[in-house]
Design goal:
2 domains; Aspartate Aminotransferase, domain 2; single chain; 445 residues; globular; Aspartate Aminotransferase, domain 1; four-stranded mixed beta sheet; binds pyridoxal-5'-phosphate; 18% strand; alpha/beta
Length: 445
Amino acid sequence: MSHVFHRNLKATYPTAVRGEGPYLFDSTGKRYIDGSGGAAVSCLGHSHPAVIAAIQAQVAKLPYVSNSFFTTQPMEELADALIADAPKGLSRVYYVNDGSEATEAALKMARQYFLEIGQPSRYRIVTRRQSYHGNTLGALAAGGNFARRKPYDPMLADTVRHIAPCYAYRDKRDDESEDAYGLRVANELEHMIVEMGPDTVAAFIAEPVVGATAGALPAVPGYFKRIREICDKYGVLLILDEVMCGMGRTGTLYACEQDGIVPDMLTMAKGLGAGYQPIGAVLVGEKVCRAFERGSGSFQHGHTYMGHTTACAAALAVQKVIREEKLLGNVKRLGALLEEALIERFGNHRHAGDIRGRGLFRCVEFVKDRATKEPFDPKHKLNARINDEMLSRGLVLYPMGGTLDGVRGDHVILAPPYNVKDELIGEIVDIFGASVDAAISRLPA
Ligand SMILES: Cc1ncc(COP(=O)(O)O)c(C=O)c1O
């Protein structure tokens, strides 16, 4: 019997023993294509020599030192690299260890910002339904993944309110243009701020491209511009969560570049360390930094391992590889190939409702009926069945249920590494297609 408290105590997991580029191998020698790097993490594949060398060199020199007492070269150089290429206005990097910690830090920083500038009545948060910002209690409260929230509802802070996601496939009316739809749902933020009392609201948080909860879902053009205007009008901070969609995943280093806006804070994790080390960060805008500099100077927060020396060295190496190997160009080119292949395979598929995403962050949402967009009965767990079929064929993607509301809907996310060979894209889509067809054909009538 395993002594690990696994994610599912009723499941048996294969033992992964080795990774090589986009492939994983288990203890029986079976090979899997890693087409999603877990939850869009392993953006360089599993064995990049430059990242491995950087980690080995750092561990040999200084594995860890507390940033309560010292700064380090990897921490400084990584911050320089991130800020050099960040949207203008983001000026400092607050290090953490993962995405949930990044959300916690951003929420608390928003609250302390208003204390620093003499607006202590602001502490409430607006978020969107069908969003996800992490699993720790503060981050869970600030998200809209209702399945993950449900067991903990009584423990979640009552300071958060939800507005609609920007989910054109489901919610845009037939007689509505994309622009009009985007404005309508963005304006829900203004209505909510007014209803809550503008002088009580600290921040609005959103993913530029929603991750696993709604399935690689970008907003329509113009939506985030209107969101930015509303935040500015009411003095509310805008936090963009790029934990999953950032660090090049959508074809630009920062996903929000494509929406033409700059947030007050931006969170990142997954692709930052590419799975070689756990690391996350909050990029902080000038306005917020200035308030801390002029005020107390210190953020009342912290974790033992923040700014971990080896994790920063690994993330710095990842950043260098992305630049030196010109991988953002690859993401755009391979992303277009992937989109094309998905449209060819699923464009006329009777159960593929929507094919969406940006760059190498793509998703297919499955429906029982394309005309009515009716989802499959959640009791059949189609997404889990597709997963089983894919694993048996040696493919790992990221399937999820609850696409519409936390209960109904099935989708599968594809998020392959940025440096795969062109041929692998076709192979992934072929195996994915066969797995979907097999899973649907075996559904109970
Ligand atoms: C958008 C987003 N925010 C936050 C998180 C939480 O990150 P972590 O699991 O590293 O705590 C995730 C994780 O999937 C995410 O996708």
